[in-house]
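Sanity check. The docking grid for pyridoxal-5'-phosphate depends on where the pocket ends up, so I'm generating a full predicted complex first rather than guessing from homology. Inputs follow.
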Amino acid sequence: MMNETIENTRITVQPVTKSRINEVDFDNLVFGRKFSDHMFEMVYADGKWGEPLIKPYEPFQITPATNVLHYGQAVFEGMKAFYADENTVHIFRPDVHHQRFNNSCRRMCIPETDFETFIEALETLIKLDRKWIPKKAGTALYIRPFIFASDDLLAARSSDKFTYQIITSPVGAYYAEGFNPVSLTTTDEYVRAVEGGTGEAKAAGNYAGSFLPAKKAKADGYTQVLWLDAKEHKYIEEVGTMNIHFLIGDTLVSPALTGSILPGVTRRSVLALAKEWGLNVEERRISIDELFEAYENRDLKEVFGSGTAAVVSPVGLIHHQGKNIELDRDKPGEFAQKCFDEITGIQYGRREDTFGWVHKIGI
Ligand SMILES: Cc1ncc(COP(=O)(O)O)c(C=O)c1O
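Predicted complex below; grid placement will be based on this.
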């Protein structure tokens, strides 16, 4: 079987001589700790991308002067592959993830990549490492494509050399013990991103800058920060690794993509479903004051986050300047649950994929 895979791709494949799969406890998967046997790599130098390669996952050498270590010129993606049956694996919306990957590259002055190589790399990796795809309900193979500046260059300008890699990691069910409602707090002290900055790119530095505020929020007893806009400190943007949605009356309100918010693939899917189901959908600016007002008027029905990791995360509490919105959710609201059931149903092949979101791979 392995030879078949190698012959069918233009990607050079160097298979492992010995799999590390026995090191993995598939009953106790910890997010992002174990990596499948193979990885993809392609290097950009002399103005063009080189030959694609799949090789054993292993450490590699860089010098202390490597550009990314100093200036953070790096982008990444986060997506998942799902075990559908013994012959089929589903990747969720790889086209949209790849578009976002290229958008991130453009903003970070990194050369774009082509979709054909991306999808061929994913198909080849998944076939080679098919034993790494967990099978239990709710589990998945997390896929992390990334590109970083790999020149030896201690000058604060764009690198001329880049390394593009894709690694994969089996991940457990996000909600193995039931849904965990998250509690969010705004902060007056920090902002995540500003229009014109890098917030809508999936750029490494966006995350580094959010770790301190996230740590402080945790120390104060909240799960994550609910980011407000950087200019007026008034409009709701998003959460650490998820977009946010509000069901107000019978309208689903999601903060508009103003340039400082990451355009989530799950967000896009939630909004498409809501429209399909005939709900009023508004992508617009929504202020924290409007949210408190809707809560006080009892119009605020549901609050939930959306992201690749959890699909939907019910929000139980929002804290802002000494006041709380308390929804006391130990499970998602009716609408968020419906989104969760539909999206996961499509991902695992239990529901019809009427939108064409799933890319099927025969294994
Ligand atoms: C900052 C941020 N916002 C939102 C999301 C949700 O995006 P997606 O639904 O594509 O996972 C993520 C996760 O990737 C994120 O890192």
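Relevant for the grid: Confidence is low (pLDDT under 50) at residues 1-5.
Also worth noting: The longest helix spans residues 204-219.
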